[in-house]
Amino acid sequence: MKYSKEVKDFIRNNVKGRTTKELVELVNKEMGTDFTESKMKSYKTNHKLRSGTPVGNKPGMPTKMYPQKVKNYMKSNCVGTSPGRMADILNEKFGTQYTHKQIRSYYKNHGLRCGLDARFKEGQVPPNKGKKGYYSPGCEKTWFKKGHTPENYRPIGSERVNVDGYIEIKTSDPNSWSLKHRVIYEDHHGKIPEKHVVVFLDGNQLNTSIDNLKLISQQELLVMNRNGLFSDDADLTEVGVAVAKLKCKIYEKVR
To answer: What span, in angstroms and rounded, lies between the C-alpha atoms of 75 and 107?
Structure first.
């Protein structure tokens, strides 16, 4: 999406010292944009902008995934315990759900050595040598059958609410989702033009009735946000849209 010079300058002048979340809230409030955190992260990356705020934890510090008691246990008991075995022990002792791969990566990243050598020795013959397509007897019982549908499969038309509070609808397999209010608007009125957005007249993002959806330009959205023209009353918001359109026309004439 292309943004006006005014929006770009505002972001550049306010990015320092603010987290992405804080910057999104400020820019959307002051400039009438519809940034999400993911959009803002991409924008900052593409324009080489840095906030200068600290990211993550200092190296070696406990984290939510690896609390201090888990770190201490691995450090004290890693010798003679393979990563796979350590994962099983931690899950049983602390009620965690570590995978063998996660603990193997932790060992590597933190310089832990178990002292075990699992490499093949010279002259050692692998047990599956000469057995093409070999698998352990009995494991075939757990294989997916042809045409099997995963338990978490969502059919086309399924709905969900995203992190920004908007309803999304599945539009195609395997995993394509679109904003429901935009889909409904385009079903009734055709493709949404560039530099335009669809807003909710009553302010309720979950009310995707076509009567509650209104197409306005990004410039009109900016005017409405700056002048507090949105309301939870749909009729008042309609009046606000008319005022915003009038202000934009006056601005164009003056310019």
So the answer is: 9
d(CA 47, CA 219): 22
Show contacts of 52-61: CB within 8 Å, 24+ apart: 52/16, 52/17, 53/17, 53/18, 53/19
Query: Distance (Å, rounded) from C-alpha 40 to C-alpha 31?
Result: 14
SS3 letters across 38-57: HHHHHHHHHCCCCCCCCCCC
- Per-residue pLDDT, 113: 87
Distances (CA, A) of 142 to 132, 139, 218, 254: 20, 6, 53, 72
Q: Which residues contact 116 (CB under 8 A, 6 or more apart)?
A: 80, 82
Q: Residue 54: is its pLDDT beyond 70?
A: no
Q: What is the pLDDT of residue 50?
A: 87
User: Are the C-beta atoms of residues 17 and 52 closer than 8 Å to each other?
Assistant: yes
The answer to whether the peptide bond before residue 150 is cis (omega within 30 degrees of 0) is no
Would you state the pLDDT for residue 1?
Answer: 61
C-alpha span between 241 and 214 (Å, rounded): 9
- Residue-wise pLDDT tens digits, 102-121: 999 999 888 888 887 767 67
